[in-house]
Amino acid sequence: MNGARICIVLFLFLLRKKNPSMASSTSSHVVIFPFMAHSHTLPLIGLSKALSHQQVKVTIVTIPSNSKSISSKIQGFPLISLVELNFPSIDGLSQASHCQNLSKIPSMDFFISFLTATTHLQTPFQQFLQSMAESGDRPLCVVTDFFLSWTLEICRRFDIPRLAFHATGVVSLLITKTIMANTDYTASSSSISDLLHQLLPNLPFHVTAADVPEVNIPPNTDINPFSKFMAEAEEADLHSWGVIVNSFLELEIDHIPLLESFYSNGAKAWCIGPTSLYGQQTNASKDTNNHHNEDDTISLMNWLDARKAEAGAAAPVIYAAFGTQAVLTDAQLEAVALGLEESGCPFALVIRSNTWCAPKEIGSKGMIVRRFVDQTGVLFHSAIGGFLSHCGWNSVMESLAAAVPILAWPMMAEQKLNAKYVVEGLGIGIGIERVENGNPFVSREKISACVKELMVGEGGKKARKRVGELGMLARQAVEDGGSSFATLKNLLQELGSAR
Which end of the chain, N or C, is surrounded by fewer C-beta atoms within 10 Å? Predict the structure, then answer.
């Protein structure tokens, strides 16, 4: 870590010497095109706010059903505007607006159909860039999601730099790219472990085949349409002008050069996070008066206020949430709720199920919420002392920024890699061990024991100390003079020079 810090200091010194006070101008304009999923959209809204603080105009490209949600989050940022593109119908589903966000599709069986539907946005997106070019307002760059690979060719037609965005961090991205670039191995735990040990000897944790998402293990793309889609997205990603990462240098600087080595033409990885901190009120007490307008968030914040007033720091609350994509069975939700109750710790549980009913054993120490809440605001509330999380990268970064230790319970995608990074690499949490014999069910007893270990055990104390240290670095990174702040200014300068 000392060597990394020296590198960071040198980086910031050279950056400031080269660009001591980059002139901001609202003539700069950036287009941002998120994938239609909450976990991919939220960090890019944070990036939009960061750009607006630099007096850069931002246009977020979205679809009608997502406009209201995005609009509510950019109020008070006059330099950020929205443009809507009509979303096409999805094979096997109706044109209904509730199918225009990944969280709204009936099941992940429709994922490839959803991805395919996004490719039909090419013509309206090209027409939008054409209108900008004709009006003399050609954007400085276009930041698009990794899944929207077809945007690269459109951006090239207008000579606009395309920056790819990934909803994960440097380490997980580095691991998956290393595996996808080395197909001459068998899909066994030992071979993947050997491959990564040889090519990435400085990884902060041990990786096996069970930790790697299946999508990142290259199959026969001729017979697997999803893998074909991902291969095309990977190819476009590697030929983009650069890559935006929701992370910060102090956390992952040792791994950035290796990640950048995969990209062509000297493309860089720009760490500008934690994006959740842009436009947020964060202070030492971790309280926020900037409550979200949704009723459930207000109710939860009021409940946390009451818990804080009643117990103070003596009984911190554990917050439990599993993101917008993971689906827990009613039996598993039952075990979660009862495990939290039996731990004796006050808890707030956010769920997505419309069928599960809370058990009668849940007392006044627990609150159950059934809708999306302002998670960043919740984590920064001073009553919160732990986070039972699926370890989506947004949640990891939000928890780290709020200095809240994590009880890691990965569900899907790259979350197992994130969970190992949280527990073994960063030391900011403890893990729930899942059975890998086809039965992923976790008992109430296991959940209760792990919650107690996080909240009052020795493992939790160590994680709390470590996350406090990294949380301070995360908050400093986005402040004026911090690493992410400086990286963003340098990015804008290089884009301006490339025009």
Answer: N
